[in-house]
Amino acid sequence: MGMVVDWPSLAACRNGDPDALFVQGAEQNVAKRICRSCPVRMECLADALDNRIEFGVWGGMTERERRALLRRHQNVTSWRRMFEAALREKGSRDKELVPMGG
């Protein structure tokens, strides 16, 4: 299964108060909880990283966490493509683990 293109329509935060994701300090931990069970968390994070979004909690990461990730992985040109490749690799590994036959 690949990543969802129209991810905002499926986001856990879509019906909430958008300002709740643009908070500071300890309130960011509350905002990050919204992301924990979000079905499109990876898509959201990839979008924030690829577009260098500076403010708010996106994909379960604060702006400080995203900046640190970008600094550690300066060679990544597309986070979406990287996440998609990781999903494909995980899928092929999972298929190898499924016993054939019955």
Task: Describe how the helices and strands are arranged.
Elements: H1 27-36, H2 41-50, H3 63-72, H4 79-97
Task: Report on the architecture of this protein.
The protein has 102 residues and is an all-alpha fold. It is built from four helices and no strands. The longest helix has 19 residues, at 79-97. The model has no long low-confidence stretch (mean pLDDT 92).
User: What's the story with the biggest beta sheet?
Assistant: none
SSE string, helix = H, strand = E? HHHH
| Average pLDDT taken over every residue | 92
Into which percent range does the helicity of residues fall?
A: 40-55%
Distance between the termini: 24 Å
Task: Describe what is shown at a glance.
Belongs to the WhiB family. Residues 12-68 form the 4Fe-4S Wbl-type domain. This protein is mainly alpha-helical.
List keywords for this structure.
globular; mainly alpha; transcription regulation; 0% strand; 4 helices; DNA binding; 102 residues
